[in-house]
Amino acid sequence: MASSTGQARNVTLAEIARACGLSTPVVSLVLRGKTSGSIRYSQETAARVRAMAKELGYRPNRASRGHFGGRHDSIGLLVDRFFDLSSLALQAIHTEAAARGWLLVVERHVVSDQAIPTLVKEHAVDGLLLPNDVSPKVATMILELGIPAVWIN
Q: How far is CA 17 from CA 28, 101, 105, in A?
C-alpha cells in the first residue's frame, strides 16, 4: 500500500482486522499460524484473513516478531575478511536462507579485536554461521547465550 507521498508503507494488523471485521488478536494468530485456547477461528476465517493480507500487501515486521515472538527469521554470518568467503559460498548461503524466508545478515568480525559482535551481543539473529577462527571470547558468549551456531571452513 502506498502513502500519499507515493512511498510504500507497512500495512498493520489492525487494518487487516478492520477490513475483515475481526479483532486484531485473531488476525495476529491467523497470520502467525497459531491458535489460542481463548480465541478460536475457522479455516474460512483464516483463508479470508490471508487473502486480505495479500490484497493489502501485508509484510510481517521482523523487528516486532523478534521482540514479541522471540524469532527474527534471520541468520547471521560473521566474517573476518569479506574475501575469505567465496562468492559461490555466499550465494549458496543466501539462496538457502531466502528459500526459507530468512534474512541473511552479514557482520564483519575481526578476530584480533576482542569486541563482541553486535549480532551476538544483541542476540539479533536466530542462528549464526561462524568462521573457524572466531575468538574464544565470542565463541564462549555464543555458547552461553544458547545461540545455535555452525562453524564453517
A: 9, 24, 32
Give the dihedral sign, CA 47/52/57/58: negative
Where are the alpha helices (H) located in the chain, listed in sequence order?
Answer: 13-20, 24-32, 43-56, 62-69, 87-99, 118-121, 136-145
Distances in Å between the Cα of 115 and the Cα atoms of 85, 91, 110, 112, 121 are 21, 28, 8, 9, 10
For residues 73 and 101, is the Cβ–Cβ distance under 8 A?
A: yes
pLDDT at 23: 92
What would the grid cell of residue 96 be? 538457502
pTM exceeding 0.70:
no
> What residue type is 80 in one-letter code?
D
The b-or-e profile of 9-28 (16+ CB within 10 A means b, else e) is: eebebebbbebbebeeebbb
What single letter denotes the amino acid at residue 101?
A: G
Percent residues over pLDDT 90 in the chain:
21
